[in-house]
Specification:
This protein has 270 residues and is an all-alpha fold. 67% of the residues lie in helices and 0% in strands. It is built from ten helices and no strands. The longest helix has 35 residues, at 217-251. It is globular, with a radius of gyration of 20 Å.
Length: 270
């Protein structure tokens, strides 16, 4: 019998996780190149979204954008949150799951990866200019740029605006990732305070992305939808990867048996 603890065997290697992040970033870079010259289509798509929202009277982004842009304290807090939280909170939750809930990590990570890939496909197929690029909205990141490290390119640091996809409003990955973080902390965290923060965090991010003029309400809904799609697809993806891994092990010279599936409870893995 192996002396390696069960939790360690369940935990993927750290370098494979970094490789996955690198691959996702390269796909994002591809999406940025594909839509770079499609500014007119991005603006038209944005205007269509605003038109539909106004007809249904579901367009809180205008009111929230006015509040955020007219109050320095609120604006600076929201801008810092938009520029920072998704880079900090999402990796922290991933590391926390990797260390303390390895039996759940693969499913949760796969949910996040699938939702991100679907979102990147959405950026390429439906480029959308954010509200801050549309007349009547204020670009709060630019308005309060002297208070932070960002420049005119959304949350990108000054001089690195070329590294962002300016037409990636639909769907909102900020909201999708925040919802994923809240969901994982709610499921696997302990205590009322922790679970309360798990609920408040995605709600706060929704207010931030609307108020800063970076997303529409439709983007928020789409961000939640792609994360739900990722959760539905995750068990199938994990099971498929386990099957592929086992098949490779069976064909490997000197292999006596397939590598066992890492997460047998795949239906609850996400």
């Amino acid at each position: 019998m192996s002396s390696i603890p069960a939790k360690v065997r369940l935990r993927p290697r750290w370098w494979t996780e970094l490789l996955l992040i690198a691959v996702l970033y390269e796909v994002y870079s591809l999406s940025r190149l594909v839509v770079r010259g499609d500014a007119d289509a991005a603006v038209r798509n944005a205007e269509r979204i605003l038109h539909v929202e106004s007809l249904s009277h579901l367009d809180p982004e205008r009111m929230l954008n006015q509040v955020v842009s007219n109050h320095v304290f609120i604006g600076v807090v929201c801008d810092y949150a938009y520029a920072t939280l998704h880079y900090v909170v999402t990796p922290l939750v991933l590391v926390w799951l990797w260390r303390s809930r390895p039996e759940r990590y693969r499913g949760a990570r796969t949910t996040l990866a699938v939702a991100t890939v679907v979102s990147l496909a959405g950026f390429m197929l439906f480029p959308t200019a954010p509200p801050r690029m549309i007349e009547g909205f204020t670009d709060t990141m630019a308005h309060f740029a002297s208070w932070g490290w960002w420049g005119g390119g959304a949350s990108a640091p000054r001089g690195m605006e070329h590294m962002t996809n300016e037409y990636a409003a639909m769907p909102s990955l900020h909201v999708g990732w925040a919802a994923w973080c809240g969901w994982q902390v709610w499921r696997h965290g302990r205590g009322r305070v922790v679970r309360g923060l798990a609920v408040l965090y995605p709600l706060f991010v929704i207010v931030v992305v609307l108020g800063t003029g970076n997303h529409y309400l439709a983007d928020v809904v789409a961000g939640l939808a792609v994360m739900g799609l990722g959760a539905l697809a995750s068990p199938w993806v994990v099971r498929g990867l386990d099957g592929l891994r086992g098949g490779v092990a069976m064909r490997r010279p000197g292999s006596d048996s397939a590598v066992p599936a890492i997460d047998s409870g795949h239906k609850d893995a996400a």
